[in-house]
């Protein structure tokens, strides 16, 4: 029996946001869009050494545009950045964007993760996939697990993909004092996912026989050799959002503090082979300002919860042309 995952809210609990997935049926990959048609103040913080991103420089507080209209998270490595073009087209057709001369230009930052290990690597999210994700977007609770950007995700790859496990997409939220803070994340880390309460691995690198968790950090401390690694072969990407009123600089700080949630739930994290990136969105729908120390602490907390939920909602990957990747519940049942 699969263990149930207790409810912990969703990114769509933040007023002004909608979320949609496109899940590719020909191989495990996909994309996830976070729509903010009324605009949301945005920031970003990139910690991994091998990022694949679009429009992140625009989010610097030194630059002019302070609001975005969507965030795109996608599989497919750098090829998956094409999905953002479909989001732009969908928004433009609806008159959403920054007025520039005769046109409205939607602002759609994006980040990608590497999932080309699984299936036919020539199949990856494109503009049509991004458009379809927008069509599917709603304010319903976010579907978790191996959907959208988390479809082809894997974790625990430091000893090779054949000893890895399934990653996935998770979400969580909390409301304090009338302000909501929420997170959404596609977990595709090179390291293990750990329970923040105990520090014990939940999913990650497995032993040679594949029957138990190896414990990546314990193995590294013993001096066990890792597999040859390629830059960009992993990456955890996500969004933290709030309905508080924030400036662009504050949104950037919120994204920075949310990375503490990665550090609590992924070990090792922010490596040379990960492109770990977190966007922050502030819709201002609550009409309230907030203490950024409180918001940042809550952001890290919900991000760690979302990471754990993503791997616990994952399902086993097996079949022709793909590695056999068990999920967290497979090993929990042993």
What is the topology?
Blueprint: E1 18-23, E2 30-46, E3 53-54, E4 67-74, H1 83-93, E5 98-100, E6 103-105, E7 110-112, H2 127-136, E8 154-155, E9 165-166, E10 168-176, E11 179-187, E12 192-194, E13 201-203, H3 216-221, E14 237-242, H4 248-265, E15 266-267, E16 277-282, H5 292-312, H6 328-332
Parallel strand pairs: 4-7, 14-16
Antiparallel strand pairs: 1-2, 2-4, 2-16, 3-7, 5-6, 8-9, 10-11, 11-14, 12-13, 12-15
Helix pairs in contact: 1-2, 4-5
Question: What does this molecule look like?
Answer:
With 334 residues, the protein is of the alpha+beta class. The protein has 6 helices and 16 strands. The chain has helices spanning 83-93, 127-136, 216-221, 248-265, 292-312, 328-332; strands at 18-23, 30-46, 53-54, 67-74, 98-100, 103-105, 110-112, 154-155, 165-166, 168-176, 179-187, 192-194, 201-203, 237-242, 266-267, 277-282. The strands form 4 sheets. Strands 1, 2, 3, 4, 7, 10, 11, 14 and 16 form a 9-stranded mixed beta sheet that branches. It has a 3-stranded antiparallel beta sheet with strand order 13-12-15. A two-stranded antiparallel ribbon has the order 5-6. The termini are close together. The mean pLDDT is 93.
């Amino acid at each position: 029996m699969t263990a149930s995952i207790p409810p912990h809210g969703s990114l769509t609990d933040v007023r002004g946001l909608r979320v949609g997935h496109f899940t590719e049926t020909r191989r495990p990959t996909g994309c996830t869009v976070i729509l903010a048609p009324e605009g949301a103040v945005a920031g970003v913080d990139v910690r991994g050494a091998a990022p694949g991103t679009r429009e992140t420089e625009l989010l610097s507080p030194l630059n002019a545009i302070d609001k975005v209209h969507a965030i795109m998270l996608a599989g497919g490595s750098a090829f998956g950045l094409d999905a953002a073009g479909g989001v732009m087209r969908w928004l433009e057709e609806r008159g959403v964007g920054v007025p520039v001369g005769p046109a409205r230009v939607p602002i759609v930052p994006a980040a990608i993760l590497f999932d080309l290990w699984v299936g036919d690597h020539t199949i990856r999210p494109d503009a049509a996939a991004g458009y379809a994700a927008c069509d599917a977007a709603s304010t319903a609770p976010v579907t978790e697990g191996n959907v959208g950007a988390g479809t082809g995700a894997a974790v625990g790859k430091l000893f090779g993909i054949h000893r890895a496990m399934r990653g996935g997409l998770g979400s969580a939220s909390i409301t304090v004092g009338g302000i909501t803070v929420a997170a959404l994340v596609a977990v595709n880390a090179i390291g293990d996912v750990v329970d923040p309460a105990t520090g014990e691995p939940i999913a990650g690198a497995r032993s040679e026989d594949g029957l138990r968790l190896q414990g990546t950090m314990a193995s590294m401390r013993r001096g066990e050799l890792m597999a040859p690694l390629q830059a960009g072969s992993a990456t955890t990407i996500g969004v933290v959002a709030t309905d508080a009123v924030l400036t662009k600089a504050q949104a950037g700080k919120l994204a920075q503090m949310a990375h503490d949630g990665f550090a609590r739930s992924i070990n090792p994290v922010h490596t040379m082979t990960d492109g770990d990136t977190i966007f922050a969105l502030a819709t201002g729908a609550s009409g309230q300002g907030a203490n950024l120390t409180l918001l940042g602490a809550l952001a890290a907390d919900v991000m760690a919860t979302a990471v754990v939920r993503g791997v616990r909602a994952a399902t086993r990957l097996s079949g022709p042309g793909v590695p056999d990747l068990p999920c967290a519940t497979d090993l929990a049942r042993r």
